[in-house]
Amino acid sequence: MKTILSTILLGLALASGAQASVSNFDDLSLAPNSYWAGTVDPTVPLYEPTVGSFSSGPATFNNQITDWGGLTSWTGWAYSNMTDTVTAGYTNQYSTFAGQAHSGANFGVGNFGVAYNYNPGDAAISFDSPVAAQGFYVTNTTYTALSMLNGDSFAKKFGGASGNDADWLKLSISGWNGSTETGSVDYYLADYRFGNNALDYVVNSWQWVDLSSLGSITGLKFAITSSDVGQFGMNTPAYFAMDDLSVTAVPLPAAFWLMAGALAVWFPLGRRPV
Fold this sequence. Notes:
By secondary structure, the chain is mainly beta. The chain is built from 3 helices and 15 strands.
């Protein structure tokens, strides 16, 4: 009993301390100039997704990948260290337009699959226990940025031919505590809605997104929307890059400490119960 109570009290003490943790993706192994975007389970039939995940720091990132018979597509999260800022198109979907990770070598890539109806799905993050999110650094992928800046065979050039079209690409992040939404934060990865075209921008560096307003959460969900929408949905490539997600463990409520105190009173650590 002494050992059990000591373990309980120590666990409560450790759990109550607010400890900042960062998911920087550098705890994931990658060869230089490479990425991971899911592993197809050979037992899963063709055209059906393999559902998986990976973890960095305290966060778990969802992923699903589908084998279409020699061609694969994925949604959710990948991680990468690719930094090609000049090659346009789908073959360069894992590079950051900032040209480097925010810290270290690796970063995360979120993909919603909505651009061309490949495996449409959400990018989500979960935590084993409640946390308070400080925020993360975000930037565009090269694929998305060059599509907005120059247009491509699927998507328009932001601003249009005149430069006056009020285009935009918005990332929305919602906090969840179980099944309850705690709030949301919007961040524009590109914005051409200004009256002065000189203010129009496509994000090309790592920028901080503050999530402190979301409170105590057990998960984050991400959504991306664009002004460029066609018959089959959003035309702009639905990707973004993340690095250095920072969260702090939420201390246990006072009720746990009352329980700990009661245990200590009823069963003193030096006394064996009868």
